[in-house]
What we know:
By secondary structure, the chain is an alpha/beta fold. About 45% of the residues lie in helices and about 15% in strands.
Amino acid sequence: MSLDIPDPLQRWRLLLGEPAEPACGVLGEDAQAADAALEWLYGRDGDRALRGERSGGGGASQLTTPDWINDIHRLFPREVIERLERDAVERFGIDEVVTNLEVLERIAPSESLLRAVLHTKHLMNPQVLAAARKLVAEVVRRIMERLATQVHQAFSGTRDRRRRSRRQIASNFDFRRTVAANLHRFDPASRKLYVQQPMFFSRSRRQAEPWDIILLIDQSGSMVDSVIHSAVMAACLWQLPGMRTHLIAFDTDVVDLTADVADPVELLMKVQLGGGTDIARAVAYAQGRVVNPARSVVVLVSDFYEGGSDGDLVRRVKALVESGAKVLGLAALDAQANPSYDRETAARLVKVGAHIAAMTPGELAAWLAEKVLA
Length: 374
């Protein structure tokens, strides 16, 4: 969702800069962020005062280039973003991310930088794109390590309290049996129990029957964090036995990226962030991929701001649920799971049987494990 400023005075304040504040009033929080982003870029033009253009405050901007890229994609509509990026590269020569190979190779990999690369990769020449891909690979590797542990823990089976295990690991420690087996070593004088033989649970490995996990990922600009974590989550699920993982990205078009699901770097480099949103069309595509509804989970990662038909979306989700498929709508999928979504549309989907939540990747793994291993 881009910034919406209906108040004409606030719009004039953004256009004219800080000197217009006494006449136009103080900006709201998001508008202040937009003002800082504009100042970060156009504050570089030393001749703007002579032309009567906006001027900002005298304080130094704290934005970095990746921060600025991420902010403008959060705050402005697509046509404004394209103009800002073009001005940054062509008018002001800000090439730290999109053209300067030396700087790009020196930047420390981070999720913030990964988001910036995904937003601007269409502006990169092949040499810079190759360097950017290395950064993407390193950040994805770090996320993958973290998520893989969470996913495998969720799907590792449950403790079998009826059988003992020779694997002496803390998570399998059987306190009650350990006490019972070592009671004869209790010392009344010191009131201590000396453990000679610790006891451990065994784990029963529940083999899940084949399940289809269909991830529908909204690739509008505001969903970049969810796109990143969805791609890595899909790769983690793909490695599990008994799982067929599909990943479909959508805006107004639908792109099936399942062939790249094992390689989240390649998958992310193919994602095209931005554009409109037609959720119903994506759900329709998922319906065509469902072979056995009783063994299918459709995970819709979106902000639920439907650019297509709300009625069609609700009807298709209802049809999926009535067929026996499980439908989970995620308003967020990142480390923080801070949701921002159309609650009215989400509520309509809940009424027809969908589950709607804001989850971290680890929470999603636990939810899926609960459904498919039940």
